[in-house]
Amino acid sequence: MEKNRVKHIHDFGQSIWLDLLDREIMDSGKLKKLIEEDGVSGLTSNPAIFEKAISNSSDYDSDIASFSKQKTSSEDIFFELAIKDIKRAADIFKPVYDESNGKDGFVSLEVSPHLARDTEGTIRQARELWKAVDRSNVMIKIPGTLQGLPAIRKCISEGINVNITLLFSIARYGDVTLAYMQGLEDRLRENLPIDKISSVASFFLSRIDVMTDPILVEKGLENLKGEVAIASARKAYEIYKEVISSEQFRNLEAKGAKRQRVLWASTSTKDPSYKDVKYVEALIGKETIDTIPMETLEAFRDHGQAANNLENEMDKANQVLKQLSQNGINIDTITKKLEEEGIEKFNKPYDTLLAGIEKKRTKIES
Question: pTM, whole model, 2 decimals?
Answer without folding.
Answer: 0.96
